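This part of the workshop introduces the protein records we will be handling. As an example, a complete record with its sequence and its structure tokens follows.
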Amino acid sequence: MEREMNILLWSIFGIGVLTVAVIPSAWGMLGHTTAAGSVENANMAQVLWGQSTPVSETVSQMANDSGVAIIPGATAPHIESVAWNTSVWGPELTLTGYGFGNTPQNQNGTLTIGDQSRGWVAGNAASYGVQPTIQTWRNDKIVVTGFAGYGQSDASNWNDGLGSWVFAPGDNLAVQVENPQTGVAGTDNVTYPENAPMPSLRVNAIAKNLTGGTVTDISGDVTFGGQSLSNQVVNVSVTGGTLQGTAYQNNTSEYVVQTDANGDFSVPYTVPNQPGTYQVSVMVDSVSSSVSVTVWAPKIELQENTSTPEIGQSDLVSGQLTSNGTPLVNEVITFSTTGGTISPTTVTTDANGRFQATYTAPNTSGTYTITAQGAGTSAQSSITVTEPPLSKGPVMNNMPSQWSGNWASHMYLTNLPSGAQILATNGSQPTAAYFRYGNGQVFVDTQTVEYYYNSAAWATTEWNNTINDFLSPSHKPVLLLNDGASWGSNQQAVSAIERAVQNVTQNSLSSPSIPNINQYGTIVIDAVQDSYFAQNLEQVIPQLDTWIQHGGTLIFDSTDQANSGVGWNIGPDGISNVWDLQAENYLAGNIR
């Protein structure tokens, strides 16, 4: 009896050990296998008929129990949810489900995300341009913390991502997970969040109007959340002109440039020669912007009221700036000339594209060029400045243009300053001239001697004109300078002046300076026979120079005896051939 009792007790003990040690483990394996089979059956039903009975949370947990060895072929990956974090660039995502297997030993494409809307795929293999950064891979969860190469593109194939490897809001995505241990894959189709933020693209303004063939830059910057995005591919296309850089092999209208470390980009652009408006389109990371460029063909039409002004004459020069017949408004036009002056030198076109300025001819005859430049173009016009008729000008009223007489036929002016207006000649050489100097003026005359000694009618008229044109209008005192020997036979001329002008002072030029010169408005110099007159005149020239520039009027009516008073040499006609114009010519040549 005792023996049977011992056998019974040992049997009960063995059954207890078996129950405690073996049956739970077997039951767990059976439960995991059963749960995995249930999940696999559900997946199969989903594949075959597009529907399946939901698997309970308990069964899912048992099937995902990584403490139990994964039996090959026991379960296919099933993605239950995809959660996105789009607040960073590129986005983060978390996959939850079951059957994902354990962490892959190498980057073999076990996770791919295909953008079916834009035609590109990201995957964890070197063959993919964009690779997900996998932080966690568990049987029930995969965590991706970003993408390497996100925002790049395939320069050989524009259709691969439509110019940019990024996910855009609303894109259809196919997420595929391949179990690294079984090689079995599962796929889930999801939509990239409609409210996902995208980068900001700013394209810098391009010059409003450009001339054909001008090279400019298309530039801008790319940011995300206020931070610069580097290494992003920017696509640029234009409807006309030439872009520098790299074009897609299968879409040569699109050019590629990348943002730098500051998110900036720039590509040189040569505008077309044909006038018109062209569009510049810029796209980065599926975000687009466009600007327009106007190419014009500016043309300046320049004209002046007269193409043959007289020396010193002022006249309007005007023109119009257009492009293909359309007036160009508020454009700056700059004038220049090879002779004379233009005022103002810079003008602005009005509502009709027109502009004008005043041209003053130089005091020297000749052909000069007026140039108007603006809006990338220019125009020129030739103008011929002429001498006025000899009968025009100061003191020439009722005067002949040719003076003749015993002395007039042999005396003439040389070394006149540039721009001097010739008033009369002796047939071939100038005998009277007028020119402006600073704010003042100079009248040089050789012929008073004919008035004094021959009583020539034209000489009397000329002297009276000199008084009327220069002396009577003077608002300041008039100074009469002689050669130190009084006016001698010239007193007749002095008397004429004294009758016409109230405030007249006579003085000699026997010293090399003129006292209180600034009190005089007009100075008349008349001298003969003084051999030292030229020396004093030379000394007083700087004083006269300043005085004339400040508004003084100089009447120089004098001859000088060049032989220093040694004697008179009688020429063939009985007239002294040494009675010359040394003083006048010296003065005219030194006052500029």
In short: The chain has a mean pLDDT of 79. Residues 132 and 147 are 4 Å apart (CA to CA).
